[in-house]
Amino acid sequence: MNPATKISLSTIRLECYGPDVGSIGTGYLYLYQFTEEEFIPVIVTNKHVVKGATQLKTVFTVIKQGVDVGEDGTADGEERFPVVMDNLQRHTFLHPDPSIDLCVILLGATLNSIREGYGVKNVFLSNSWHVGPDLAPIIRPIETVIMVGYPSGIWDEVNNRPITRRGLTASHPLKSWNGTRQFVVDAACFPGSSGSPVFLYEDGMFRVRDGAFTPGTRVKLLGTLWGGPTVDAHGVLVDKEIPTSIPIGNEKIPVVKTMMNLGYVIHADALNDFVPLIQEFMERYK
Question: Which of 102, 211, 264, 269 is the most exposed place for a label (fewest CB within 10 A)?
Answer without folding.
Answer: 211
